[in-house]
Design brief:
436 residues; flat; mainly alpha
Length: 436
């Protein structure tokens, strides 16, 4: 009798639990059906800020929290309070919280989120053109690194990274597409999440939001096109005036060393301004193409005396020329001269360190300056931390330095770091660990 009562009690309890679970499941299903767009969109937005938004070919990639709204990231990125990711999180939370008080709150939040999403490539291409310049410069520098690595370093057959192959940078639309080509999974998740929140809110982004960002570059592109047409017609002075207006309206053109050279060529054809900075730039680029690097550097130094945005562009190109001169000297056996020029390149433009440090580390090693090489290695690892194959090579070079210093434990540690960073046919690290 007691057993029957107990079984009946268990059955009743089971029925109650089943009903309660069914009730919870029904409530959960109704909640999911009503809010799944908002839930999934919020999850994508919150998760995206920790993922990769911008991929640099050589230096460190940027997450949503490391892509600042108002300043350049620098060589080593840091988390910024006013970043695209941080602002996106604050806007989303504010929209959800204020939805209880204002029906349109989430609609406004969705509009801001889509604005942030759409403006990301425009921000890189137009508001922070130096960021796009760094991205394209690193892309152009990659073949140099591959040739140098193949010729002078033990082979590491790790998997290559996927980067854009061909970019068009002489039009505004081309620059926008170029900036878009460097965006990665984090931005994609943020964009998809913003769209889902926008669909839930049933509102769209106002058309006028992008105008303030895109208007100056569009005007600059207009003057650039007008200058190109005037140049084709032989109206040299009109072309020069239009090109200068393009530089005034769009910082991208003001940073374009080739546009300054074009103005110098037009001045030469018109027989005016024989000693202008643009004429010096034009001559410098001609000498650079002829591998007359030292004379090109001298012409660049003359042009840099003008100051302003022109001097910034000239110092950057002068540093690149010194890097090329250092490589030429290194290939000819002049390692000391190569190291000197690479050091001078850093003095001309410290932002070039992402290109210079790999060569400089190897140069210090060849000159038996192992401590200096190790300092360079440790600095370089922080810059290229997101690129496993490059990091592996740098750690292997550090291991070689420690081996030369007789610090075998440290050498083995660095070889292990190299193998951990890239274990796919990393011959350099494997051979050293095996005692070769």
């Amino acid at each position: 009798m007691k057993i029957t009562k107990r079984l009946t009690s268990w059955a009743e309890t089971g029925v109650k639990i089943t009903k309660r679970l069914a009730s919870w499941a029904e409530t959960g299903a109704k909640f999911w059906a009503a809010y799944w767009l908002l839930i999934l969109g919020s999850f994508l937005i919150l998760g995206s800020v920790f993922l990769k938004w911008v991929q640099y070919p050589i230096s460190s990639n940027l997450s949503g929290l490391e892509l600042p709204l108002f300043h350049d990231t620098g060589i080593i990125p840091h988390v910024a309070l006013l970043s695209f990711g941080a602002v996106g999180i604050v806007v989303l939370i504010a929209g959800v919280v204020l939805l209880r008080f204002f029906v349109s709150a989430l609609s406004l939040a969705a509009a801001v989120l889509i604005t942030l999403c759409v403006l990301t490539p425009a921000h890189i291409a137009f508001q922070q053109p130096m960021m796009l310049r760094h991205l394209t410069d690193e892309l152009q520098a990659m073949p140099w690194h591959k040739i140098f690595t193949k010729d002078y370093l033990p082979q590491n057959y790790g998997s290559p990274e996927v980067v854009p192959n061909q970019l068009i940078l002489y039009t505004a639309s081309g620059r926008l597409l170029a900036a878009f080509s460097f965006l990665r999974l984090g931005w994609t998740c943020f964009a998809l999440g913003s769209l889902l929140v926008a669909v839930y809110a049933m509102r769209r982004l106002p058309d006028g939001k992008m105008a303030t960002v895109l208007t100056p570059p569009i005007i600059g592109q207009h003057y650039f096109n007008s200058g190109s047409i005037a140049k084709a017609r032989g109206h040299n002075q009109e072309a020069i005036a239009d090109y200068r207006k393009a530089m005034k309206w769009d910082v991208w053109h003001a940073q374009d060393i080739n546009l300054y050279a074009t103005i110098g060529d037009l001045q030469k054809q018109s027989g005016i301004e024989n000693n202008s900075p643009e004429r010096h730039i034009s001559r410098a680029l001609e000498l650079q193409k002829a591998n007359e690097y030292e004379q090109a550097i001298f012409e660049f130094s003359r042009a840099a005396e003008a100051g302003g945005a022109l001097a910034v562009a000239v110092r950057r190109e002068s540093a690149k020329t010194r890097i090329a001169l250092g490589l030429a000297l290194y290939q000819g056996g002049g390692i000391g001269g190569a190291v000197t020029n690479w050091q001078l390149a850093l003095a001309d433009d410290p932002t070039q360190e992402v290109y210079v440090l790999p060569y400089l580390a190897r140069g210090y090693f060849d000159l038996a300056r192992y401590e200096a090489a190790l300092q360079t290695v440790n600095r370089l690892v922080k810059i290229i931390a997101d690129h496993s194959s490059m990091v592996a090579d740098v750690y292997s070079l550090g291991g070689d330095c420690y081996a030369k210093l007789g610090r075998d434990a440290d050498a083995r540690h660095y070889y292990n770091l190299s193998y951990a960073a890239d274990w796919i046919v990393n011959y350099w690290a494997i051979s050293r660990l095996a005692g070769e």
